[in-house]
Automatic annotation (TrEMBL):
PANTHER family named in the record: GTP PYROPHOSPHOKINASE YJBM (PTHR47837), GTP PYROPHOSPHOKINASE YWAC (PTHR47837:SF2)
Any single Pfam family the record assigns to this protein: RelA_SpoT
Biological classification of the source: Bacteria, Bacillati, Bacillota, Bacilli, Lactobacillales
Pathway as given in its UniProt record: Purine metabolism; ppGpp biosynthesis; ppGpp from GTP: step 1/2
Gene3D superfamilies the UniProt entry points to: Beta Polymerase, domain 2, Nucleotidyltransferase
InterPro entries recorded: GTP_Pyrophosphokinase, NT_sf, RelA_SpoT
Domain RelA/SpoT stretches: 55-178
UniProt-recorded name of the protein: GTP pyrophosphokinase family protein
Species this chain originates from: Secundilactobacillus angelensis
Length: 214
């Protein structure tokens, strides 16, 4: 870390370390909330919208890259005011409507505040990327008392997740030749629209079958 950050104000650096740990504690809070919902859906309903979850802390290199991309040098304030995905949780669902079920169950909890919502499902990115991104906060208890702490939650179906993993390889691997990037990029954009159609049709079948079970 010191190699990346150079000779920065150590007070600022310490505030950053504490904040990084605080974000990790925030992710644990949301992890527990999601685990509780997962158990409750499993036991009490005939369909659990949560397929699986993944939690990650943003690596310092990636954090610094994002900060520079946004036009800031390292400082605690620049990080706190501009980077909201230090802690991230990905929730993978089976069906498209499950995404809103999980979103609602999570955001209606009284200690959760919705800070930001980006709906790349209704409005996919130019690449074809689809997901629902939420920045939500929860109080984390520090010595001074409760401190609101942001965590980014990405919600997507199994299909959207498979697509994003493959497209991520194409986009972020530096050694892929440009011709392939363009060719596969176009192809993947098409597959994103096709997947959306398939997932919408499968949702309709699922909803119809659910009627027979209720
Ligand atoms: P990493 O290592 O995956 O975490 P903001 O975070 O809102 O200030 P930003 O970064 O433009 O601004 O947010 P955006 O675009 O809403 O979401 C960023 C994250 O979404 C990315 O993380 C990716 O994980 C994912 N993502 C966004 N667009 C695409 C895309 O076109 N293809 C794929 N595969 N993933 C995408 P990071 O921060 O880039 O890095």
């Amino acid at each position: 870390m010191s190699r990346i950050l150079g000779d920065y104000d150590t007070t600022d650096l310490r505030r950053f370390f504490v904040y990084y740990q605080q974000c990790q504690a925030g992710a644990k809070e949301f992890g527990a909330k999601l685990e509780n919902l997962d158990s409750e859906f499993e036991i009490l309903t005939n369909h659990n919208p949560i397929h699986h979850m993944e939690t990650r802390m943003k690596a310092p290199q990636s954090l610094m890259r994002k900060l520079r991309k946004k036009g800031y040098d390292f400082s605690f304030d620049a990080i706190k005011n501009n980077i909201f995905d230090i802690a991230g949780i990905r929730v993978i669902t089976n069906y498209i409507e499950d995404i809103n079920t999980v979103e609602e169950a999570l955001t209606k909890q009284t200690d959760v505040t919705l800070l930001k919502r980006k709906d790349y499902i209704s409005h996919p990115k130019p690449s074809g990327y689809r997901s629902l991104h939420l920045v939500v906060s929860v109080p984390v208890f520090r010595r001074s008392g409760p401190v609101s702490t942001p965590v980014e939650i990405q919600l997507r179906t199994v299909g959207m997740d498979m697509w994003a993993s493959l497209e991520h390889k194409l986009r972020y691997k530096t050694n892929v030749d440009q011709q392939k990037v363009e060719k596969y990029g176009d192809q993947l954009k098409g597959y994103s629209a096709e997947l959306n159609q398939i997932e919408t049709n499968m949702q309709a079948i699922f909803n119809d079958l659910q009627k027979d079970q209720s």
